[in-house]
Write a structure and sequence with these properties.
Elements: E1 3-13, E2 16-27, E3 31-35, H1 42-50, E4 55-64, E5 67-68, H2 74-80, E6 82-85, E7 92-96, H3 97-108, H4 115-128, H5 134-137, E8 139-140, H6 146-160, E9 164-168, H7 176-191, E10 195-199, H8 203-209, E11 213-218, E12 221-226, H9 229-237, H10 240-244, H11 252-263, H12 266-271
Parallel strand pairs: 3-10, 3-11, 6-9, 9-10
Antiparallel strand pairs: 1-2, 1-4, 4-5, 7-8, 11-12
Helix pairs in contact: 6-7
The protein binds adenosine-5'-triphosphate and magnesium ion.
Length: 272
């Protein structure tokens, strides 16, 4: 059973420190819910684990068993068994979705998959996801609806069979029925022993996939690493208890950011 171990991870983007000492451990077979206020570093963490070039790691380590993940390129990390379903998947005009998927499957296997085998796999996965097959034959994510893009991330997960799958707000943009379909697929993948790091702001998806732990990221650090009961608590009462009970101030910078975003909309005018 493989384990991903993150120790004292610091990372910055464009010279601004976002992750300020993350400690986190996840093994295959576990499902860890990641929560936290907007802008506190959740997506940054997953992107850093996957090796996104925008982020610079300034301190700390990430090991997958005895392998130093930070020394690997993104494709090497994928071959190791790490996977990221992105919060905002990119549109790549001109790259056919099925060609992309097949290239990714081949990059992970010792010998290339036959056309017949690949289409059998693709057909089964798209049916399970209740996804129109024509999405597989179009340009990658180009013109896909928000929900279609998210389903396509899960399609990649099904074909790539990672050891640890990281899903960044996979439920945003999915309609109620689609959340159920995606949760059914995640449950099947959980049975196969995959580990999941799942970011979401809502309890609905977590109710369906039953995480084993909840991790709350505040100010670029892990404020809570505890049982799944925190999910319900946060859903019902928000993050205030982190300040009142744990004495952790939710950083001013993020609060200011929220003020700015409210200030820039018409609501402020109507409140005046
Ligand atoms: N290029 C950049 N320059 C400065 N700050 C940046 C840059 N890119 C990202 N950030 C900031 O990094 C912080 C963390 O972003 P991140 O996407 O990790 O947040 P998050 O916890 O995933 O939030 P959400 O719940 O809204 O998805 C944010 O305040 C964001 O504005
Ligand atoms: Mg995010």
């Amino acid at each position: 059973m493989s384990t991903l171990v993150i120790k004292n991870l610091h990372a910055e983007v464009d010279g601004k420190e976002i992750l300020k000492g993350i400690d986190l451990k996840i093994s295959e077979g576990e499902t860890v819910a990641i929560l936290g206020p907007n802008g506190h570093g959740k997506s940054t963490l997953l992107n850093v684990i996957m090796g996104h070039s925008k982020y610079v790691v300034t301190k700390g380590s990430i090991f997958f068993d005895d392998i130093d993940v930070l020394k690997l390129t993104t494709d090497e990390r994928a071959r190791l068994g790490l996977f990221l379903g992105m919060q905002n998947p990119s549109e790549i005009p001109g790259v056919i979705n099925s060609d992309f998927l097949r290239a990714a499957v081949n990059a992970k296997s010792e010998k290339p998959i036959s056309t017949y085998q690949f289409y059998k796999l693709l057909d089964r996965a798209t049916k399970e996801l209740k996804m129109p097959f024509d999405l597989a034959t179009r340009s990658l994510n180009e013109g896909f609806s928000g929900g279609e893009k998210k389903r396509n991330e899960i399609l990649q997960l099904m074909l790539l069979e990672p050891k640890i799958a990281m899903l960044d707000e996979i439920d945003s943009g999915l309609d109620v029925d689609a959340i159920q379909v995606v949760a059914d697929v995640i449950r099947e993948e959980q049975k196969k022993g995959r580990g999941f790091l799942v970011i979401s702001h809502y309890a609905r998806l977590f109710d369906l996939i039953q995480p084993t732990r909840a991790v709350v990221i505040v100010n670029g650090k892990v404020a809570i690493d505890g049982g799944p009961e925190y999910i319900k608590r946060i859903d019902q009462t928000g993050y205030e208890f982190i300040k009142t009970e744990l004495g952790i101030e939710i950083s001013k910078e993020e609060n200011n950011m929220n003020t700015v975003s409210i200030g820039s909309c018409a609501v402020k005018e109507s409140i005046k």
